Amino acid sequence: MENWLNAFALLSNFVIVPALAYGSQLALGALGVTLVFGILRFSNFAHGDTMAFGTMVVILFTWWFQSMGINLGPLPTALLALPFGILFCALFALLSDRLVYRFYRAKRADPVIYLIASVGVMFVTNGIVRFIIGPDDQNFADGERFIIRARDFKEMTGLAEGVSIKLSQGITFFTMIIVVIALFWFLNKTRSGKSMRAYSDNEDLALLSGINPDRVVAITWIIAAALATIAGTLYGLDKSFKPFTYFQLLLPIFAAAIVGGLGNPLGAIAGGFVIAFSEITVTYAYKRFIGHLVPEDWEINGLIQLLSTDYKFAVSFIILLLVLLIRPHGIFKGTGV
Amino acid sequence: MRGALRNLTYFLIMAALIVLVGQMQSWNLALSILNLCIISAIMALGVNIQWGYAGLFNVGVMGFAALGGVAAMLISMPPVVEAWSAGGTGVALGSLTLIVTIAAAVFTFRSLAQGKLRMLALIIVIAVGYSVTRSIFDPATDAIERVNPAATGYLGGLGLPVLLSWPIGGLFAGGAAWIVGKITLGLRTDYLAIATLGISEIIVAGLKNEDWLTRGVKNVVAIPRPVPYEINLQRSEWFINWCAKLGVEPVTFSSIFVKLCYASLFTVVLLIVLYLSEKALRSPWGRMMRAIRDNEVSASAMGKNVKARHLQVFILGSMVIGVAGAMLTTLDGQLTPASYQPLRFTFLIWVMVIVGGSGNNWGAVLGGFVIWYFWIQAEPLGIWLMEQITTNMDAGSALRAHLIDSAQHMRLMTMGLILLLALRFSPRGLIPERTGHG
After folding, report:
1. What is the pTM of this model?
2. Is the complex ipTM higher than 0.85?
3. In chain B, what residues touch A117 (CB-CB under 8 Å)?
């Protein structure tokens, strides 16, 4: 029995807890992508770099607050800076819409033209971020490091394996739940949210019913920017901030959105967790886990790792291909045009 | 006629700009810019075949170019005999089991009806096949990597002439394109974009981590050249005599001579690719491709197999990119997996095609030249600009140091702006596509 508990504790520590945090970050990122897709009907390649932009503003404010001695005690100061990050990121998204995308919307351009335009926006955003904060790693987490330390857990339970939960992981998970509840309340209960859904379902009909398209688009960008900033900040707190990593997150985020069904918010959340759990379970080395379950005198050769962590992107890619092969519209049906 | 004159002017201006670098900076630099311009032009032609002819959005240019680079290394490097005897059989056997696994998985997928049973059988086949493959592969690759890791630690190549790798690189890239295209074509364009983005990241991750094949981040250096080495030239009598006759200094001229050799080889490839692309575009096949691009529904109503045509054109374009990737590695003389960056290898090529003129091969070539030229020249220009701006600031100011330091990131922003401006104000590019019978 204790062996089983040890094995489970080990798995929680290295697979379940990290995957829950990572899944939350991906889910928030994929929600942004899927919302832009549902309303504006294109895949926004600039989303990863929008995340980096928002996070950069948060980091700058965090540093400013830290230099003034303002903090949240045990919680990271970044949470205090988050609203400012969202504000600047939303302004940036609205500006890019005004300068770039609005023109193509008026022309009713092909989705792929938007896609190329978003690549241009991605370049510019990436350049701005690197210009302001540089291409290197930035660490901005402060406050307490852990909710539960592995040592305390071992003392509490008497098990050989400990479970540690980082504060950033806990914050990530709870923020995700709050944000998702708020978002769904907004989409389902408020007038603006309903008009967004109507616009997403049938643009012409929505226009006929007197919905103001500019307003819907503006709200979409603000929400997408807010989601991007939150996802980016949480990811940065949990791991670290590096502009290029945020570009690379584009692949798992898109995989999550497509797996769940592009344009479907519920699907984006499910997709985020599917991708995160598969990535981490496949790249985890099971040697010690199996060691707890088999008789002690058995010798285990190798790490029992299905795939090296260097190939974690391969996991999202393969899941993406499998879903496209078997269910091209995703697990939940997307609004795919 | 006016169009032809305008195009000629563009190319003459481009030539003048390169000559200007030769006069103002150095001919060595001008020729290295020219060589990379030609390679960029070929890559842009490849992307143009996919995007301009067929409207396919490939975001994985980097991966296909990297496969070409691997081909250059695998064909030309001498084989490491020790490594082959240490793990050659294991790798061969492992590859065989991998192929058998894939074949078995495909067979299971095809022969069983859809449902839970098929899923279960598929998972079992893949799990067993994968673990058998890994159990054969891992010891073999470990043994290979242990063979003199500082110098080799990999299988080496075939020791054949490097020129042979250019078509082979094309085949490698075409093979990868076939796999991606087979799955994602026929779905939304976005899916193809994401899938190509994914495959290119995976290819480059493979290059960085499969040390037994590519030495990973330790790089493979000294890939044999198709042209003479400077040092040999400087020692050979005919070359020294020739230099004396021309009245030039042998050391500088030897490196210019080598670059000229590369330039002529590359020009031959560029002309061949350009000729074939133009022929294809003007043939019934090219008209069909454009018809499919402009209206898939009516083309398919006319009995054209849209998906098969897309797959065909996607593979062809990727092959051209693969050839260019092999040429690039040949020019560098080394395979450096860490140098494959998506911004440089994928998105820059896209800027070339959009700025040059999508759908027009001459436009793609011009775009390749123009954008590469500015990509290289933007860096000194940006640093110069920043120094001018900050000239009134205190010399020790942190802001000034930061601004000058960050000038190198300016070119990312500049490229993005160029892409956005071209897309908005000149969506058909410098040399627009020729439509109708004109």
Report:
1. 0.90
2. yes
3. 420, 423
